[in-house]
């Protein structure tokens, strides 16, 4: 009996040890699930977003977020100089709400396996893997790069022809490529169906309080408040806003919404910030989503002191609004006229207070073509700002009489024709005629307004 009991106990220990080994053995355990946020986006951020970000990413494939990757690619170029008519905008997070809506706009998937073939992204990675570029060597001449590169955007059914014609143009293109671990991680994720978990940004308590205060300020009732709110929105819509005491990686941007503070944002997506919203709206602050890239990262800090400064500048003196301006071509073409009721010194001083932000908006923006901006500004330049106390537009009402003539001809032929007709200069066709007409019209209008200064300075809009 004791021997039988001892044998049973020994057998029990052996079984338990074997079971424990089976449960913990690396050879038999399933590989950990791949997280898009933790595993995939960091690879794309390091190896891909330098090209595949901003509005005009190659084939409109934006790899700065799961939403951009799920949206896919498009054959329609964002910018095309010879195009005579505008196309519908395709801004990520703005112009469509879900993948089905993007499919309706001509985007196709790079993540879905189709026709018995792997996903388009997987095949592009395989092509890049099969013909890596030699290390520390010049990129082959047949790989065209630069602003004039004609992107080829094959759909899944066109990939074989693309691969045959572009044997060295897999992805990532013209860079060092992926490490073995990165390549395997991406391919495992794609083979598993490319799941993308939702990643939402929740404002902190401090950020929420400041967001509510700023939204309340811009959405105040009253004609003066409505005009100032519009002016601030149209000057700050490009800003990546951060708050005093907020989270380090949290940024927000102004949008127009059909819903007020406290309700989910119902975005009004217009082509330009000064286009007609088409309905009642509220100015709202929403989180900036996706990977932050330097080209579009125009930061602007907000805090209670800056809010007090806005109130002092714009409401510290008595002024009235006879009628709120509309959103027609005339008002869109002439912000000097649109915001004429707001004291010029308030507008100018706000821009001086925030001069760094406004200068950055001339250099950066949603277009990934930094070569153009760098070529124009030559990297280093001087900026001079005039003291408001010596600015004729602020100190001389007669000088401001030329405001109606300061429209932008590029905002539509109707505006230019109206200016030319009102000032009596001949109209014509072609860009040169338009520029000449606008310049002549401006000079005549300024003379009629009684402006006798020898030259016209740039005035605060």
From TrEMBL:
<dbReference type="GO" id="GO:0009055">
    <property type="term" value="F:electron transfer activity"/>
</dbReference>
<feature type="signal peptide">
    <location>
        <begin position="1"/>
        <end position="20"/>
    </location>
</feature>
<dbReference type="InterPro" id="IPR009056">
    <property type="entry name" value="Cyt_c-like_dom"/>
</dbReference>
<keyword id="KW-0349">Heme</keyword>
<protein>
    <submittedName>
        <fullName>Esterified fatty acid cis/trans isomerase</fullName>
    </submittedName>
</protein>
<keyword id="KW-0408">Iron</keyword>
<dbReference type="InterPro" id="IPR010706">
    <property type="entry name" value="Fatty_acid_cis-trans_isomerase"/>
</dbReference>
<dbReference type="GO" id="GO:0046872">
    <property type="term" value="F:metal ion binding"/>
</dbReference>
<feature type="domain" description="Cytochrome c">
    <location>
        <begin position="35"/>
        <end position="194"/>
    </location>
</feature>
<dbReference type="Pfam" id="PF06934">
    <property type="entry name" value="CTI"/>
</dbReference>
<dbReference type="GO" id="GO:0020037">
    <property type="term" value="F:heme binding"/>
</dbReference>
<keyword id="KW-0732">Signal</keyword>
<keyword id="KW-0413">Isomerase</keyword>
<dbReference type="GO" id="GO:0016853">
    <property type="term" value="F:isomerase activity"/>
</dbReference>
<keyword id="KW-0479">Metal-binding</keyword>
């Amino acid at each position: 009996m004791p021997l039988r009991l001892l044998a049973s106990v020994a057998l029990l220990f052996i079984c338990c040890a074997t079971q424990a080994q089976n449960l913990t053995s690396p050879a038999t355990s399933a590989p950990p699930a791949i997280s898009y946020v933790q595993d995939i986006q960091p690879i794309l951020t390091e190896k891909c977003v330098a090209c595949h970000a901003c509005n005009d990413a190659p084939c409109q494939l934006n790899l700065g977020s799961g939403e951009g990757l799920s949206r896919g690619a498009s054959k329609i170029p964002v910018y095309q100089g010879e195009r005579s008519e505008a196309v519908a905008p395709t801004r990520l997070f703005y112009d469509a709400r879900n993948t089905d809506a993007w499919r309706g706009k001509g985007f196709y998937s790079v993540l879905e396996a189709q026709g018995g073939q792997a996903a388009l992204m997987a095949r592009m990675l395989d092509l890049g893997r099969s013909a890596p570029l030699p290390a520390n060597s010049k990129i082959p001449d047949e790989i065209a790069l630069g602003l004039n590169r004609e992107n080829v955007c094959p759909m899944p059914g066109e990939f074989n022809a693309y691969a045959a014609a572009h044997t060295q143009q897999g992805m990532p293109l013209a860079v060092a490529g992926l490490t073995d671990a990165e390549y395997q991680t991406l391919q495992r994720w794609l083979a598993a169906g490319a799941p993308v978990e939702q990643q939402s940004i929740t404002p902190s308590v401090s950020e929420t309080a400041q967001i509510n205060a700023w939204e309340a300020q811009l959405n105040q009732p009253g004609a003066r408040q409505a005009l100032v709110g519009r002016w601030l929105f149209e000057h700050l819509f490009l800003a990546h806003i951060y708050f005093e005491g907020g989270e380090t990686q949290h940024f927000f941007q102004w949008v127009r919404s059909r819903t007020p503070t406290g309700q989910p944002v119902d975005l009004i997506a217009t082509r330009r910030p000064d286009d007609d919203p088409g309905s009642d709206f509220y100015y709202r602050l929403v989180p900036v989503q996706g990977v932050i890239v330097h080209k579009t990262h125009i930061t602007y800090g907000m805090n209670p002191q800056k809010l007090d400064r806005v109130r002092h500048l714009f409401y510290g003196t008595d002024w009235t609004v006879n009628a709120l301006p509309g959103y027609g071509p005339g008002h869109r073409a002439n912000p000097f006229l649109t915001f004429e009721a707001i004291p010029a010194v308030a507008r100018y001083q706000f821009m001086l207070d925030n001069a760094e932000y406004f200068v950055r908006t001339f250099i950066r923006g949603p277009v990934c073509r930094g070569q153009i901006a760098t070529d124009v500004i030559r990297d280093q330049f001087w900026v001079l700002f005039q003291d408001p106390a010596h600015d004729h537009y602020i100190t001389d009402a007669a000088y401001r009489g030329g405001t109606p003539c300061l429209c932008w001809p590029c905002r539509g032929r109707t505006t230019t024709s109206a200016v030319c007709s009102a000032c009596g200069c001949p109209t014509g066709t072609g860009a040169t005629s338009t520029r000449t007409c606008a310049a002549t019209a401006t000079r005549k209008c300024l003379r009629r307004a009684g402006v006798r200064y020898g030259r016209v300075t740039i005035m605060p809009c």
